[in-house]
Amino acid sequence: MKALVIGASGYIGGSVAARLQTSGFEVIGTTSSNERAEELKRLGIEPAVGAHKDESFIAPLCAKVDVVINAADSDARGLVETVLAALKGTNKKFIHTSGSSIVSDTACGEYADKTYDESTPVVPVPQKEARVAIDRLILDAAKGGVHSVVICPCLIYGRGLGMSKESIQVPALINQAKKSKIARCVGRGLNVWSTVHIEDLVELYALAASGSVPAGTFLFAENGETNFKSLAEAIKSSLQLSAPVEEWAIADAVSEWGEGMAKFALGSNSRIRGKRSRELGWKPTRNSLLDDVERMCHSSDIRVAVH
Fold first, then answer.
1. Residue 250 Rama label (left phi>0; alpha psi -120 to 50; beta)
2. Digit-coded pLDDT (tens) for 133-150
3. Which long-range contacts (CB under 8 A, 24 or more apart) does 287-291 make?
């Protein structure tokens, strides 16, 4: 069996590629960098260098494999349309990576009790409508002979299995705390996100790649949750900061991280339940996010940017 991982030099894509290799897959991995292509080669992955939004680059690769996994960009509709056109009528597997900000709100650090499983109707905030439309396009492609699956992870943590070792959300908080010597949260930090360890997440991709997930299936990936005040306190403790955790006004958070990150990745609620994933045999077992904060705070792969 052969798999194409689009975005194989990234955190999710690299980890998925490494996991599929252990199941006996030959893996082709895309990257935009010749330097990263050499690293993929050293990891036993056949590199393909090009832009993931280039139809003439992606379509021929899809013809060479049994499984296509998009781990490069949840919002690249053109890429998705290229893959679906290439796979139409073949019954080959297409596993697309979405993200649980599709159920996020605009709470700016306040708590919300709403949770979602795979059967809960999603009415996204306007900024996430395009992503939801892409997910639905992919699921509908099952009617046209594409074995399509959408995997929707939440806040991911844990050391990556490929060349990119850390995720995005928690490192953003850690970098800010290292730089300012103050751990901060958006607003009161009562907002809650579901969490999933990267090693548990890639097991769900492996399950889907094996053919154990029916075509046209949407899956949430989570194993626990935390609020951002608790996360900031854990960062403060791990970095041994003397200043108390600071509740940051949304305007200050946007100035530091940008609107998308501040409002939807760090200031919102995104609470999901992987009910269908577990019914299909997924069994997450790794340690919790708060247990991993100490490791992340001292990881050499999380560095304060120098401007």
1. alpha
2. 999 999 999 999 999 999
3. 287/197, 288/195, 288/224, 288/226, 289/155, 289/157, 289/170, 289/195, 289/197, 289/224, 289/226, 289/231, 290/226, 290/230, 290/231, 290/234
| Domain residue limits, the chain | 2-297
Q: Which amino acid is at 136?
A: R
The 3-state DSSP composition of the chain as helix, strand, coil percent (nearest 5) reads 40, 20, 40
Q: In this structure, what DSSP letter does residue 213 have?
A: S
CATH class name, domain 2-297: alpha beta
Neighbouring CB atoms inside 10 A of 222's CB total: 27
pLDDT digits 0-9 by tens, 281-294: 999 999 999 999 99
Cα 150 off chain centre by = 12
Of residues 54, 1, 59, 61, the one with CA closest to residue 29? 61
Tell whether the model's pLDDT for residue 195 goes beyond 80: yes
CA separation for the pair 142, 65 (Å, rounded): 18
DSSP 10-79: SHHHHHHHHHHHHTT-EEEEEES-HHHHHHHHHTT-EEEES-TT-HHHHHHHHTT-SEEEE-S-TT-HHH
Beta bridge partners of 184: 246
Residue 294 CA to residue 272 CA, distance in Å, equals: 25
CA–CA distance, 254 with 250 (Å, rounded to integer): 6
Q: Is the pTM of this model over 0.90?
A: yes
| pLDDT confidence of residue 123 | 93
